[in-house]
Structures are given as structure tokens and as C-alpha cells.
């Protein structure tokens, strides 16, 4: 019997690979002869790099770059097991996780550090990239990334505008004379499920700015600044980002990639499953097990278990969901996607205990589920 174990992380308790290892241990408790294949997955947001590297036996590279407020930090990018593809998450250098809550300020926050990671990877010889756009602290339209790669954003006096979403209000023109031409030799796959445009009521500033620390007044300023940036990009490149679907991802960084990079924007889970060779792996599998910290209606919007279930159905394979918690009101909608749906949490288990002993609880739950399934 061959079982594919492809969980996402259980946020706050287990990484995706740890969850897969817990499931594998539960299966070995029943029968050590059952073949388990660990393919930790993610949906393109935070945790994608680690899942991809772990699933492909890749490696990590750590570099000193700027955090969103310009302070030096050590940030990491991944190299897949093919030794050719570089994985960079914008959250790693330019994410909310890098800031205390009282430091959140999208007027000042810059994506420059993410650009520095790209520069390092280019210098190391990589030309194939997967970029995860979830979890950014920025609303600078990806300007920082572009600035790190040599693009100059100039004010009316020909001086470089300040980094951050606030500085974009001063932009008058774009100078590409020092642009890193290695970008033009490279291919970028952008993992993002965000469909929001660059500006407007559904744009980056209005929808995502408040969670990054923007006040209502800040949102107006940021949206106006992104509009000026989009105007400058259209003048320079002939590409209108204003209403472009997906351009508002990661505070507008999606727009920067669409305008200046040879890129393809795809749903995060699809990018991940392709990169780890999931579809080929399941062709001779007898069972697939997936899971996440909490499963609810949001799962249907492209979260990892949903993507796993789609492939399983396409290949005619049974797929079992084992999550930390399952929203009972969503169970009826979720059930058609999965052969079985299970939750670790029950009335006898507190949230604190479930999190503190997550590995053992997932191992035991997987063992019970497999005993019943067999």
C-alpha cells in the first residue's frame, strides 16, 4: 500500500513537513510495511518556500538584507531539489512577521529586502524563480524590489524618491538605465491567489492597507501614490496596471512583477503541486492524506486541501482530510470533496493542549483513521 501525505502547516504548532512526519509515524504504528511518501504542501502564502524545499530535498540560502523598515536582518530563500529553481517569499524579508504591531506603517515599509534576495540569487546563477506574495508588510507597489534591482524612481528634480508607499507620491519619471538586465534572462512564476487591482475601491491600499497599519487617511494617500506610480509605469512601459487583475497582490508588488518581469501569475496551490511533482506521485498511490490547522469555507478558495482534493478526484484516488479543527457548519459543503473528514479537536481536548502536543495528537489521529480505513 502506498500513501501520499500532503498536509499544509498546522499554523502555530506544526510545519508542513512536521505534520507529514506525524502522519507517517501514525501509519508506521499500524504497519511499517505501508509505503509513505511525504509531500508537504502549501497554497502559495507563508510557508510555501519551506514546503517546496522540504518536498524536493532542496536547500536554503541565508543572506543579510533590509527588513521593511530598512534594518539589517538575515533572510532566507530556497533552492529546489532540481538545483535550478529559486523560491522567494516576499514575507521572508518584507513581511508583517518582521515587524512588531506598533511598527506597522505602509507609508514607510519597503519591499527592498525582497529585491536584495532576488539580486543575490541572480548573482548565484539562478534564472528560474517562484515568488510567493503572501504576508507582505508593504504597500509600495513593489517599488522597493525594483529599486534593489537598479530601477530609479525619480522626482521632478531628478532625485530618487524615498522608499516606501509614502515616497511614491513624489514620483515623476522612471530611469531604467541601471536596471539589472539579468532579470530579462529569467523566468518568474508568481504564486498568488489575490485578484485585486492595483488601485481603487478594491485595490491594494483599500483592501489590504488597514491590516498593514494604514489609517483611513493613509489609505487615501497610499492609493493616490500607487495611482501616480501606475501612471509613471504606463508612460515608461506602455502597461496599464491600474485595473489589472492581480496587480494589487502584496501591496501592489504583483503589479511590479507584471510590468517589469517575464512572469506568469498562477494560483498558489497549483504552483506548489506542480513544483513538487504531486500529480505524477499520486498516479500509483492507494490513498492521499492532507490536512491543515483549521478547515472551513475558506478552504474552498484555493487552500492546500482543496487543491489536493482536486488532483485526487482527477486521478480517481481516495483522499482523507485530517485537520486540527473542522468548522462543523462547513462540513456538509466539505464532505463531497473528501472521502473522509476528520478533526483532531473534540470536546475532550482543549485548544492549548492540541497545540502544545500537536505532533502526538496528529500521529494518534492518523493511526485511528488508517485503522478504520484499512
Per DSSP, the total helix count is 14
Distance between the termini: 10 Å
DSSP strand tally: 15
Low-pLDDT segments, ≥5 res: none
- What's the arrangement of strands in the largest beta sheet? 3-4-5-6-9-10
Which class of secondary structure composition applies to the elements? alpha/beta
Share of residues in strands: 15-25%
H/E series, N to C? EHEHEEEHHEHEEEHHHEHHEEHEEHEHH
**Largest sheet descriptor:** 6 strands, mixed
How would the global form be characterised?
elongated
- Backbone CA Rg: 22 Å
- Report the helical percentage: 25-40%
Mean pLDDT comes to 95
Notes on the protein architecture:
The chain is of the alpha/beta class and 374 residues long. Helix content is 37%, strand content 18%. It is built from 14 helices and 15 strands. The protein has helices spanning 16-30, 48-56, 90-94, 112-123, 143-148, 204-208, 216-237, 249-260, 268-275, 278-282, 304-315, 331-334, 351-356, 358-373, and strands spanning 2-5, 35-38, 59-66, 72-79, 85-89, 128-132, 152-154, 173-175, 187-191, 263-266, 287-290, 294-295, 319-323, 325-326, 340-343. The strands form four sheets. Strands 3-4-5-6-9-10 form a six-stranded mixed beta sheet, with helices on both faces. Helix 1 (16-30) links the parallel strand 1 (2-5) and strand 2 (35-38). The longest helix is centred in the middle third of the chain and has 22 residues, at 216-237. The N and C termini lie close together (10 Å). The relative contact order is 0.15.
Amino acid at each position: 500500500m502506498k500513501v501520499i501525505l500532503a498536509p499544509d502547516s498546522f499554523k502555530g504548532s506544526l510545519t508542513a513537513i512536521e505534520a507529514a512526519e506525524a502522519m507517517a509515524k501514525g501509519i508506521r504504528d499500524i504497519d511499517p510495511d505501508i509505503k509513505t511518501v511525504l509531500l508537504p504542501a502549501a497554497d502559495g502564502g507563508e510557508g510555501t518556500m519551506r514546503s517546496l524545499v522540504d518536498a524536493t530535498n532542496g536547500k536554503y540560502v541565508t543572506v543579510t538584507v533590509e527588513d521593511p523598515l530598512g534594518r539589517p536582518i538575515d533572510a532566507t530563500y530556497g533552492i529546489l531539489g532540481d538545483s535550478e529553481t529559486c523560491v522567494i517569499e516576499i514575507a521572508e524579508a518584507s513581511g508583517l512577521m518582521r515587524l512588531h504591531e506598533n511598527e506597522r506603517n505602509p507609508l514607510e515599509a519597503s519591499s527592498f529586502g525582497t529585491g536584495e534576495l532576488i539580486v543575490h540569487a541572480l548573482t548565484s546563477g539562478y534564472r528560474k524563480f517562484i515568488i510567493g506574495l503572501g504576508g507582505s508588510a508593504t504597500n509600495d507597489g513593489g517599488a522597493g524590489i525594483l529599486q534593489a534591482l537598479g530601477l530609479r524612481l525619480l522626482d521632478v528634480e531628478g532625485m530618487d524618491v524615498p522608499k516606501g508607499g509614502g515616497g511614491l507620491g513624489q514620483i515623476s519619471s522612471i530611469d531604467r538605465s541601471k536596471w539589472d538586465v539579468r532579470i530579462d534572462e529569467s523566468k518568474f512564476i508568481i504564486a498568488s491567489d489575490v485578484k485585486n487591482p492595483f488601485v481603487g475601491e478594491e485595490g491594494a491600499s483599500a483592501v489590504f492597507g488597514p491590516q498593514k497599519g494604514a489609517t483611513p487617511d493613509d489609505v487615501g494617500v497610499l492609493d493616490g501614490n500607487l495611482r501616480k506610480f501606475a501612471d509613471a509605469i504606463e508612460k515608461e512601459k506602455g502597461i496599464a496596471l491600474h485595473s489589472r487583475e492581480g496587480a494589487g497582490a502584496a501591496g501592489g508588488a504583483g503589479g511590479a512583477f507584471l510590468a517589469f518581469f517575464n512572469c506568469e501569475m498562477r494560483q498558489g496551490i497549483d504552483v506548489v503541486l506542480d513544483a513538487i511533482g504531486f500529480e505524477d506521485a499520486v498516479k500509483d498511490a492507494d490513498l492521499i492524506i492532507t490536512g491543515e490547522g483549521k478547515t472551513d469555507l475558506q478552504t474552498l478558495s484555493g487552500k492546500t486541501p482543496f487543491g489536493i482534493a482536486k488532483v485526487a478526484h482527477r486521478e480517481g484516488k481516495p483522499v482523507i482530510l485530517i485537520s486540527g479543527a473542522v468548522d462543523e457548519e462547513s462540513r456538509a459543503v466539505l464532505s463531497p470533496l473528501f472521502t473522509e473528514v476528520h478533526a483532531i479537536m473534540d470536546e475532550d481536548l482543549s485548544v492549548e493542549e492540541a497545540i502544545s502536543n500537536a505532533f502526538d495528537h496528529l500521529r494518534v489521529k492518523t493511526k485511528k483513521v488508517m485503522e478504520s480505513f484499512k
